[in-house]
Structure formats: structure tokens, C-alpha cells
Amino acid sequence: MAVLTLVNILISFAACAEALRRADFPQGFVFGTASSAYQYEGAVNEGQRGPTIWDTLTRRPGRVIDFSNADVAVDHYHRYKEDVDLIKDIGMDAYRFSISWSRIFPNGTGEPNEEGLNYYNSLINTLLDKGIQPYVTLFHWDLPQALEDRYGGWLNSQIVFLDPLMFGHYPPSMQKLVGDRLPQFSARASMLVSGSLDFVGINHYTTLYVRNDRMRIRKLVMNDASTDAAVIPTGSVRMAAHSALGHVQADEAHQRKKRVKMAGMDDANNRFSKLEDDLQDDKRIQYHKDYMSNLLDAIRKEGCNVHGYFVWSLLDNWEWNSGYTVRFGLYYIDYNNNLTRIPKASVEWFRQVLAQKTAGLEYSGSTVASS
User: Fold this and answer.
1) Which residue, 88, 305, 328, 338, is most buried by CB atoms nearer than 10 A?
2) CATH number at residue 55
3) Count of other CB atoms within 10 angstroms of residue 27
4) Domain span holding position 324
5) CA of 361: how far to CAs of 14, 85, 300, 304, 348, in Å?
6) Number of structural domains the chain divides into
7) Strand 340-343 versus strand 326-327 pairing type
8) What is the pLDDT of residues 305-330, one digit of tens each?
């Protein structure tokens, strides 16, 4: 049965793999996969790690749909060497991971925790030994609880906007709301900060259709990004990836900066489904095929300076308020069997796409056809 299942998977993606090849992307283009510390590491009480706001939140009933937490997650803390081997096996160039703030600074500030430093040094060295480039995220939602208690988290007045570093001015919404009270950039200051970042990462997963709230009923909820929203994600929207890149490409200073794009899609974690069905993730393959094709479209038609494409995510993992109810991974995690990593069809699809380094394809519009 296992042999038959593997044969079926190989047959199903063989045709898809012909549609995209690494060689179609610019020289030096980086393909990678991604994770985040809180969703992957587990080991929340090991290595002198301090508590985070998500450790606190998951202890409050009803905050996570399946009442789970990430105390173990996918045990990346103990199994990172195994996971790095999986990245290497696919043929990925890079791994984007986050550093747990509370693992380095258990109290948010002060002296760094030696055990935390050793863990990340070991992870980075393991990646480099395998020829995989580390891309480090400094903050991925897991704020130390100590800083939440002390400052109120990111709602503190010391919050920083990215717009000045990209465009040399504050966000238009901020200019409108604050008006004349907003400090002004001098022409020289604006020139110095505008476009001063090395690259910008753009996350794009799906698209939401919105309309004006004609009822104008204000919900009594403060500081909630979804307060006025009643929307449903539409899934794979191939042209939206192109649109998102075009939006940031419009600024002259931004055109000179490299962009790194990350995208991914989830499946429901259905405990009644068969394993062979869960491994046959054709929708995920089509999703990445669509998004990568449109990425090429943006590069070739609009001249977008895109440097890489990162897949969320390497493994199924703990997905914030959704807990373990959804699966984003290229690798299936068997939560009932020692967190065994099992490759889905998308692993082999990416492996074949990334192995095509010399033969290009004839490209036309938003589709790719073999030459």
C-alpha cells in the first residue's frame, strides 16, 4: 500500500513540475522555506527561556480554537538538525526562522541568556554547514511577557513605523489623523532614511474582498485589527501576488530595494481523513505554481526587484488562534506518532522544480510553457 501511494503521488505531480523551473528565475534568486520560534520550537520551560504573551494567552480558555498550546509544538528545539536535513533534501537555498526574544532575554532586557545564544548559534552553524543561508526574523509575535507587563507591549508610544525607512515620510493615515502635530522630515532627513533598508520582506497568503460598512455600527472593541471587518479569505488568488508587488514597486526609492516574498496555504487538519489523502496536497502545489508564475510576471513585465520566494511552511505547526486545526507544511506532522515528519507531494514537486538549474522555459504573460 505504501508503495502504491508513493507511485500515485509521483504520477500526480510529474505534469505540474514541467510548468516551472529554477532556471526561469533571475540569477541568484533565493528559494527558501520558513518557520517561527513560537510555532515550532516548543521547549517553553527549557534553556532558561522566559514566558511570552502567547504562553499567557493560551492559558485563557477560548482563545485558541482547539484549546491547545505550543508547549511542544513540533519540537524544533530538539530536532532542528533533522529539520535542516529536510530543507537540504528539498534543494532550498535558505531558511527563514525567528529568534525567540524571551529565549535570549528572558525578562525582555538585561544580560543575554547563554543557553539561548548557544541554541541559535548551533542552528545557524548547522544551516551554514549544509550550505543553507539563514534569514533571521527578530520578532514574530512572541513578545516577552515581562515587556507586556512593563510597557503594554507594542501599544506603547515607542512603536516604530516602517514607512519612513522606505518612503521618507509617515504613513498617509498617520498624517491625516495627527495632522500638524506630526513632526516633519526635512528634505535632507527624508533623503537619508528613504530606502535605507537592504531588503523588505512581503508576506502574501490570500486576498480579502471588502466593502464599505453602510450600517456604520462601531463595535466596542479597542485595538483590534479585525474590529470593523467581516471578510472571508478567498484562497489562491494568483493575480494578487503581482498586485502586492506592484503596490510597493510604485515608489521610486523602493524600486532599488530587493524584496523577498513569502506565501503559503493551509489545509484543514481532518482527523477522519486518510493519510494518503493528506499527503496528496495538489491544491498547495497549484497555489505555489500560481504565485511563482505571477512572481515571474512581476519581475519580467514590471521590473520588480524580487530577490527570493519563501514557502510557509516547512512543517505543519501550531498556527496561533487556530492551534493544530490547520496544516501549512510541506511536511506532514503525525501528532499521534512522535511528531514524525512525512513528506507531502509538494516536497517532491519543489524538489523537481529546484533541480532544474540549466534548462529554461519559454515564458509568455502569466503562464509558463516548456520550450
Assistant:
1) 328
2) 3.20.20.80
3) 5
4) 2-364
5) 16, 30, 13, 20, 20
6) 1
7) unpaired
8) 888 999 999 999 999 999 999 999 99
